[in-house]
# Entry
Amino acid sequence: MRGRGALSCEKMASGAASRVDVNRPSSGDYDVVVAAPFGAVAVRCDEAAVIGLYLFSQELTPTWAVSGFAAQVAAELKAYLMDGSRALMLPVRTKGTVFQHRVWQRLRRIPPGTRCTYGALARELGTSARAIGGACRANPVPLVVPCHRVVAAAGIGGFAGFVEGGMHAIKGWLLEHERLWLDFAPERAHFQETY
# Structure
């Protein structure tokens, strides 16, 4: 169950991406829920990998982790939310096409404070910008696979299929959060915009 404003990237039977349900989620639906400045981050994991990460633009009651691994994930998320220069290097187990996995592997190599355009990634991977956007939209573990670092040639582009509203505001917050840390760490001032 997911709630309004939740970023999930699973597909419905019809093939349309589903990110918003009308029911408010329960914190108990996840292995751990972490409060975030923009709302909350909820995680599903198995014994050794993150299998789903959901961003909420509204508050969700934080929970204790249900396992040692979930506690590790929560600690990593809290550290990232405090320090935008940290990369989340958590193991993931994701379902997707061969193409989606190829894009997601490339996204994991984009460091915090760095942006890349859909077009630049498309040229690098020999595909279209629209296909890159589709793979970003299908990403089941945002933040760990940092699809928010992929932007349009003019502006920040969409996020989770939205070009406005709560999810789009979360993308803006994430980009600003990572950029702000560059001001405090001149040695990390390698902020790049690839166009």
User: Anything to note?
Assistant: The chain is about 30% helix and 15% strand. The CA atoms of residues 47 and 160 lie 27 Å apart.
